[in-house]
Design a protein that fits this description.
Elements: H1 12-15, E1 20-24, H2 30-45, E2 49-51, H3 54-58, H4 62-70, E3 73-78, H5 84-90, E4 98-101, H6 117-132
Parallel strand pairs: 1-2, 1-3, 3-4
Helix pairs in contact: 2-6
The protein binds iron/sulfur cluster (SF4).
The site of iron/sulfur cluster (SF4) has 11 residues, from helix 2.
């Protein structure tokens, strides 16, 4: 896609209080990649949802920790039962609004970066429906 057609996102550092922030583990296995694609899909299709940098939260980047803390709803997507994304956030005493583990949702953890687009569509719909029923955190 040429740069002229790039979809520009909201600046999460400035608009986080009005946004549902999505942090995905992005693990290097099928389940991590499904989680990443779900996060991308939710971001692209919902102007009030925005993927943000989990690695920066883990690295104690102050702006990114603040984004997680101040988000309207905080959505955590883990690939497998190690639940790395949840642990990173909870270790900072930040309570997510919603957590999901892709490996518990009918997707096998396989050592591949390939995934089934139907799993991405199905889980994006599920998360969207469930998060829409939750109250804002702040
Ligand atoms: S939760 Fe699982 S898939 Fe995600 S980063 Fe951790 S070990 Fe990898």
């Amino acid at each position: 896609m040429s740069k002229e057609n790039w979809q520009l996102l909201q600046k999460c550092s400035q608009e986080t209080e009005g946004l549902d922030i999505i942090l995905a583990c992005d693990g290097a296995a099928s389940v991590g990649q499904v989680g990443h694609e779900v996060a991308v899909k939710l971001t692209r299709e919902n102007a009030e949802a925005r993927m943000c940098c989990l690695a920066a939260v883990g690295a104690n980047s102050k702006p990114h920790v603040a984004i997680a803390e101040k988000s309207r709803k905080l959505i955590i997507i883990n690939g497998c039962q190690n639940n790395c994304a949840s642990k990173i956030v909870r270790d900072k005493n930040i309570i997510p609004s919603y957590e999901i583990t892709i490996a518990k949702e009918g997707v096998d953890k396989v050592p591949t970066l390939d995934f089934d687009a139907e799993d991405v569509d199905r889980l994006a719909k599920k998360i969207s429906a469930e998060v829409s029923k939750l109250p804002a955190r702040n």
